[in-house]
Amino acid sequence: MDLLATFSAAEPELTLTELSSRLNLSVSTVYRLLVTLDDRGYVERNPQTGGYSLGVACLDLGTVFLSKLEIRDRILPLLESLREACRETVHLAIMDRDQMEVIYLEKLEGLLPIGMMGSRVGGRAPAYCTGLGKCLLAYVEESAVRDFYSTNGMRAYTPNTLTDLTGLLLELEKIREHAYAIDDVEHEPDVKCVAAPVWNHRQAVVAAISVAGPQQRMNRLIEESGLVERVLTVAREASLHMGYPRRASKE
Predict the structure, then answer these.
(1) What are phi and psi of 106, to 5 degrees?
(2) Enclosing H/E stretch for 86
(3) What is the CATH classification number for the domain harbouring 134?
(4) Are 229 and 194 spatial neighbours (Cβ–Cβ below 8 Å)?
């Protein structure tokens, strides 16, 4: 991975010697890596210069990542409608399963005054203590969840943060049952959110949406304005936009 990351727009082609020097590895080691990467299409050798550059397989990976960004384009109008209806901040996020973190694809700022909220487009947040993250984490294999948090632990961000793995697994089970998650001031002070998963045509969870705001206003929306059902409805509509079978969405 370090070898692939050595290439850049400024230096799209590098020789074996240059790569060896940049990576601080022997020429023979770098050559063996290049042979494997070349065989898989991740690098290609220029027969005229002898230099190496990224191969077409890297484009394939980029295409897979860009397909995730398509989610935003497809459901942005739904997110905007949700923000107009509740007047609080609306998020769209996906999961980085290797790091068990959410990555924010969209953030529509609320229309009411709010203090500091750390989320930003392209930013990350831990999965176990955010509504979006718990929604996505609920559909990750339990063994992977156990292995990751047994190794990495669960830091307390606020007094409400759940730091017990057994308790987290029980909460994820409830999220699968009810199809939504709540971050009850677990990641940021005074920030509460309601989140629901978005499914695709393969009936797999590919993203999550949420409404977030100050705890007092969010409690009022949940109790008096049916916020949970509103978020669930938008998540179901977003899933249909992603090809989720209409019949399955009614089950």
Answers:
(1) -155, 145
(2) helix 56-86
(3) 3.30.450.40
(4) no
Buried b (16+ CB within 10 A) or exposed e, 19-29: bbebeebeeee
Structural element, H or E, at residue 45: strand 43-45
Q: Which residue has the tokens 């909220």?
A: 117
Cα angle 81, 86, 90 (rounded to 5 degrees) comes to 70
E-assigned strands of the chain?
13-14, 43-45, 52-54, 89-96, 101-108, 124-126, 181-184, 191-199, 205-214
Instruction: Write the pLDDT tens digit of every residue in 202-245.
Output: 889 999 999 999 999 999 999 999 999 999 999 999 999 988 88
- The whole domain housing 19 covers 2-54
Structurally, how many domains does the chain consist of? 2
pTM metric for this prediction: 0.73
For the segment 161-189, the average pLDDT, to the nearest whole number, is 96
**Smallest Cα–Cα separation from 89: which of 128, 129, 118, 125?**
118
The DSSP 8-state label assigned to residue 122 in this structure reads T
